[in-house]
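Sequence, structure tokens passed on for absentees:
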Amino acid sequence: MTTQVKVWANYETWAMKLWIDNERDSYEEALTLTKQTLQRTPLEHPYWTKEQCELFTLASHLKAWWDDQFPHTGGVWEDLLNSAFQEIDWHEIARAYLEEIK
């Protein structure tokens, strides 16, 4: 039997997903956001499929949730942290949660 290993887009995406999953409260919040997104996504959209709406909406919610917690310290450390934060592929993280829930 072969085990598939998930290859993430980059280190920042992998680290963010790891930290979310390793903290009970944040993991449960991510699952709650995912379930709410699935319940509230309209069945029809003029341009996107339902699955695309779910993915884009959840990615946006996840990013906003963590953006609200971003530590604004100023200086070089904030610049470096912001640079790393911008590298996170929120769509990839959202896709992983949607697959987990479905």
